[in-house]
């Protein structure tokens, strides 16, 4: 946590109270001049800070920034978030996670950006990533599991996102195979997982998560592959992004622990309960027709064809018919 984050955390721990420069200096073990410099940097970021001689500083308000000090507050994860990197802008959080992984970053490292300049979705599609409105997050994991089980983590992510949306905002979020979360048939979140492995060993897995939180209608591009929405559009209420990130990480951590202890079965059951295409007739890539009957152990979609055979679908776009 930077000195700036620590000062902001100190202000927020004593709302509406003046905190003296001397107290900040002693608490952070930095000079009074350094305190003043950090306060000025906070002001440049948009924080409204009142200063009074002999009283000190008081936080009056500020922008909605994703800061590690805010997200870590109350976080009790066993695996995730022990190293939390929050950035103002990055090309892609998945790309930065991969870079850190190759440099030896620890299991559970989390990268969060306020804006992505080159966010990616499935099949190389662009993920619109404007600043100050959404959550763009990548999580580095080093699970000691067989390589063929790594795709199961995509479904863990989808379940955690959908349940967090349901819990915090009472949204009827549903999962769509293979890696989307929908509300009312509109995409509100997408997952992009990547793996680095050899034949018998996983070096690391990156869980990429993008969730539309405070995105307004005019911020979505005119041409989308799929109708999209956000929590703001669905509820009319502005989301506390740090709170959402914290709750999501906490839920992800719990399910990751469960996955390591009990395997894929509990996650698969939760995913199937959240999938509103279960037992419905669908079409895959405008060709294959059948009824969705669940997930296979490796995450393949199980599709019962008209002749009774069950086909395993490894990739494709699913549409109800």
Task: Reconstruct the topology from this structure.
Layout: H1 3-13, H2 21-28, H3 32-44, E1 48-52, E2 56-61, H4 68-72, E3 84-87, H5 93-102, E4 110-113, E5 135-141, H6 152-169, E6 173-176, E7 180-183, E8 186-197, E9 202-211, H7 231-235, H8 241-262, H9 265-274, E10 281-284, E11 288-295, E12 301-304, E13 310-313, E14 318-320
Parallel strand pairs: 3-4
Antiparallel strand pairs: 1-2, 4-5, 5-9, 6-7, 7-8, 8-9, 10-11, 10-14, 11-12, 12-13
Shape: elongated
Strand content: 15-25%
Distance between the first and last residues' Cα = 51 Å
Strand order of the largest sheet: 3-4-5-9-8-7-6
Work out the helix count: 9
Q: What would the average pLDDT be, to the nearest integer?
A: 89
- In the predicted model, the low-confidence regions spanning at least 5 consecutive residues are none
* Major β-sheet profile: 7 strands, mixed
**Secondary-structure class:** alpha+beta
Rounded to an integer in angstroms, the radius of gyration calculated over CA atoms is 22 Å
Helix content: 25-40%
Got a strand count? 14
What does this structure look like?
- It is a single chain.
- The relative contact order is 0.11.
- The longest helix is centred in the C-terminal third of the chain and has 22 residues.
- With 321 residues, this protein is an alpha+beta fold.
- The chain contains 9 helices and 14 strands.
- Helix 1 crosses helix 3, helix 2 crosses helix 3 and helix 6 crosses helix 9.
- The strands form 3 sheets. A 7-stranded mixed β-sheet has the order 3-4-5-9-8-7-6, with helices on both faces. Strands 13-12-11-10-14 form a 5-stranded antiparallel β-sheet, with no helix packed on it.
- The chain is elongated.
- Helices cover 32% and strands 25% of the residues.
